[in-house]
Amino acid sequence: MAKVNSYEKTVVQTGVSRRSFLKSTAAVTGLALATSACVAPGPQAASDMAAPSEEPVNIQIWWRLRPTIEGAIQVFEETHPHITVSLGDLGEAVYGTPKYVTAVAAGKGPDVSYQNRHTFRQFASRNLYRPIEDLLERDNLDKGNFMAGPIADLTWQGTLYGLPHTAGTRYFFWNRTHFEEAGLDPDVGPETWDDIMEMAPQLNKMEGDKIVRYGFLPHFPPGLSDQLLIYAMENGGVSQSEDGRTNLINTAPWVEALEWCVHMIDEFGGGNAAASSFMEGFAGQPVDPFAQGQVSMCSYGNWMIGRYAKFPDLDYDGTGLMPVSAANEGAQVNWSCGWTFVIDPNTELVEQGWEFMKWVISEDYVRAAGTVGLELEKEEWARQQLPGEPIFAPTPPVYQPAMQFMLDEYYAVLPERQKLMMERYLDSETFSVGCGQIAGLAAAELWIGFKNAWESALTKKQTPQEALDASHADVQKALDAAWENLESA
Amino acid sequence: MTTAQPKPRLTNAAREALTCYLFLLPWGIGFLAFVIGPVVASFVLGFMDYEIVTPARWVGLANYIELFTDDQRFGMSMGNTLYYVLVFVPFHVIIATLLALLLNQKARGIAVYRTLFYVPSIVPIVAGAILWVWILQPEWGLINSTLRMVGIEGPLWLASLTWSKPALILMALWGSGAAMIIVLAGLQGVPQHLYEAAEIDGANRWQRFQHVTIPMLSPTLFFILVLSVIASFQVFTTAYVMTGGGPAESTLFYMLYLYRRAFVLLDMGYAASMAWILFVAVLALTLIQFKLASRWVYYEVEQS
User: Which listed site, A257, B114, B117, B168, has its alpha carbon 20 to 30 Å from A338?
Assistant: First the structure.
């Protein structure tokens, strides 16, 4: 009200003209905008942290919302009465995190956020996450207690920027029933590309001249845009030079891998039109063609070990040891990725956020989420009237004590087949390369580059070499710019 | 003895003006802060290298030079967008007009038909897009299943380099109901006596349509044309949801590419320069449309 009165007084003295009104309004707004723009948020140093208060403090956490998580958060709040949690959804977050990035840039990021490791180093190098080395050291949290790959993914120039939560690798599945029908040993999956090429036509099932069951399709699962990476790795490809400055996705191993994928589709998949038409049929569906028994072998992820168990007609097996090319025979190949918790560089609630992060990586979280998850799984099995006991294989944690709890509590009681598959997965984590290290400083461009090259080659818009040259040029340009910006900062 | 009357502090006109401006103030502040501010900021950012999370750096015309000389996707995305505009807009105007003519009849239950044709335009665009992903699905989608019944093997639609853009255009045409309503309103505004006069002069049905309906409807059609061209240049959501710009960037429209540069690749300065190029292009096209309008748009008021 005071403002209105003083404004009125001014009006009385000077009269109101449109020009003076607009001038004053623009000046006030401009001043407000300029003032707000000049307040530059910066990363919070450990010494500036707000001291824990007596009153419950509310922290905002962006996560991928699911009932399991909401249940686990309730447990956290019960065991940490001085902290309350406001959960928000992270939104799209695998190949970039626009919601998080814009929020942090505006100084309004969540105190703690879930992040994927696909683009982690790119964003860590741009100060989107608070370094946590000081907190780790203060609380004697040993990096050696985490899987090594994820810790390396989250480390940029010697500094750790987040706590890894979960991990996962590629996983090669095969349908045991189909193998038996084709006279193949159901206990032994393909170990090389040659094995795949020999098995795929035996597993194909035809109706007239139409393939109604595919032995193997490289573009699996429907809609995923990074398949090219695993095939290139299986052929000895690396994505960038050791110093992270040169992109290598148009080198021979990559081109050969893409050529092999195109060849597989043309030779054993009835060509791209037929194979894409078939695969498009499953895009956006909750089940994939392997689960439905319409593809006999596929390259997917370890998280499907538990999910495929919900299909009682599916007798499946799998390994984390991916089939390799003849040139790379004997190599142990895989890549690993997963989810991570980070602290907003601008938050004042570092202590509370850190307390939550330590809890969420621990066995306490695994127990809380597992309890809720198992109940939900039981309900799901009852709803679908699935036979037997629910097979519950939650996402593996990265922190070793939590992993041990997971092994003892949940993986140990899995049926023998799934237990064995989970062991094979854990073994694959020991030789997998982390996606953060693969992608480097031009990560967002790299994932787009994979997709573009893949689609261009499969649709015959370009040859594999041309497609990869084009993607390489894009990524290299972004990589050069990233390094230049970094060094000039 | 007379006492001097105090002079009113404000005249009625001034008080009225003040009230008016006070009511306008919230909008004015919002307009400055959320429209003019970002517009000016985007113009300045177009001359900067700005990655959102790092300080902006002045680069002069570098973004514009790169766009025109060293960015293949700029031309490609503009080409994809022009294809969309050139195919969608004529069909959109024609379909909206034909539907309006059809639904301008005095038939039983006509309100129900009008509602049915209008409903798709109020379906949330993301929900509509997901629905159309299923309709266009090559194996068992509604369109290809229907085509298969008459012996035609339909295309891959969203998975095809050739058919992905037509598929998105088809989906957009499904939402022509909003334009149809506007044309319908225009049709119902055509004075009946003009038709009666034409009929007395011996004009047949087609001649009445050609020489009465079309001229009288031309301002409405012009309005729809201008809005459709502007909206088509900004096509984004359907491609973002249904194809992500694929396959092989065949549906990478200008706005999708701009979004990718701004929010995926964090190249906000570059994206700002793209936005200004689009603005200039759309403004120029709109001015050309207004210039050409005098040749075919008939305003009754002007003539009288």
Answer: A257
